[in-house]
Amino acid sequence: MRRTVAILLLIIAGLGISLSLTSIPFGVPKTKVGRHYINEGVKETGATNIVTSVVVNYRGFDTLGEVTVLFIAAIGLGAVLTASGKEKERKIEPASLILGTGCRFLFPLILVFGTYVFIHGHLTPGGGFQGGAIIASGFLLIYLGCRERRISRVASNLAESLGGLTFVVIGLLGLVFGGHFLSNFLPRGTANALFSAGIIPIIYIAVGFKVGSELAGIIDNLIEES
Amino acid sequence: MIFIVSFLVVLMLVGAVAASIFRDLISAVISATLVSLVAAILFYLLAAPDVAMAEAAIGAALTAAIFIIAIRRTKRYEE
Predict the structure, then answer these.
(1) Domain map of chain B by residue range?
(2) Interchain contact, B73 vs A226, CB within 8 Å
């Protein structure tokens, strides 16, 4: 009985959604603001990656909120897991030779790739979040392959705090020099150069450090407890 | 092109259904990872490489790792 009612409700909801969506044309530019980002974005921000110019420049404040959400999630996880945890000595089973060697070989490459992704966030696809996630997956590999190694909690916390602090300080400097929070007060330079787009690369490097150390810290907390 | 995309979408649907059917939770997590991976490829084909990178790194790698660590602490098989 309950199952038939649920299926009926699902069908009605699906019909409603599909009927309301079919009247909206797909892939046709509708908004003026999207057109403006595409046409004027490179000129106004200096970043050739339009996604980055939207994420860090036009909607930079939203990105700060996003970073804060991740920060609060990481803090909450750490608080829950370490509140009950007591230091226990556990036997570390060494990983197999293939996994260990592969991890030693791949980890530096993954680290360099992640750094490349967030440093070139204003030129090529990618950015702070993607680069940070790639770096965190490199640390995950270390936890799987080289069991005896651990990242230093102090260094990870320092990178995380400095990243967040840089973001906010850059925003406040924009308030001082440019008139509003996170305004692009540095020279934009020539598009397509590494040192261009004003504050965008600085913010993305800060976000990359922050996201990478936060996600690595989450994995570290979870593995430590298990 | 359309065949590749249809194959990927069917693969994604199979992965999603399998993730909800499997009693072995590790297999379910791996099917859910397959969904994320195919979604990343589809994002790339739809000319959204930024989202594809985030989906591949977070959806496919880190989420699966966190789920597997959690399953190791609890029970592997669903009743």
Answers:
(1) 2-73
(2) yes
| Burial (0-12, 13-18, 19+ Cβ within 10 Å), A115 | middle
Q: What is the mean pLDDT of chain A?
A: 83
pLDDT at A189: 75
Q: What angle do CA A33, B45, B32 make, to 5 degrees?
A: 105
With 60 as the cut, is the pLDDT of residue A87 above it? Answer: no
- Tally of residues, chain B: 79
Q: Does pTM top 0.90 for this prediction? A: no
Give me the mean pLDDT over the A140-156 stretch.
80
**Nearest Cα to Cα of residue B30 among B73, B2, B75, B67:** B67
* Domain residue limits, chain A: 2-225
CB of A130 within 8 Å of a chain B CB? The answer is yes
**For residue B5, is pLDDT > 60?**
yes
Q: What is the crossing angle of helices A60-84 and A200-225, to 10°?
A: 20
Q: Does A137 touch chain B (CB under 8 A)?
A: yes
> Quick one: average pLDDT of A191-201?
79
Q: CA of B8, closest CA in chain A: separation in Å?
A: 21
d(CA A114, CA A127): 9
The DSSP secondary-structure symbol of A121 reads T
Q: What is the mean pLDDT of residues A203-225?
A: 85
DSSP assignment of A144-176, as one string? HH-TT----HHHHHHHHHHHHHHHHHHHHHHHH
H-type alpha helices, B1-79:
2-21, 25-45, 49-54, 63-73
* Number of Cβ within a 10 Å radius of residue A211: 30
Question: Which of A125, A137, A219 is nearest residue B50 as measured by Cβ atoms?
Answer: A125
